[in-house]
């Protein structure tokens, strides 16, 4: 998943996304040699599940 797709889905800004990643509050993306970053959908789903579990 592209960073822009993550931002759109969660309705957050680019700076918020990268702050979350930096602080360990969101799964880190895979970074490829050409400078492209992609987030793993399965990792995001697992993160969402863990967020729901901690909010209950």
UniProtKB/TrEMBL annotation:
It comes from the Bacteria. Residues 2-51 form the Helix-turn-helix domain. It holds the Pfam family HTH_17. This is AlpA family phage regulatory protein. It comes from Tenebrionibacter intestinalis. The lineage of its organism: Bacteria, Pseudomonadati, Pseudomonadota, Gammaproteobacteria, Enterobacterales.
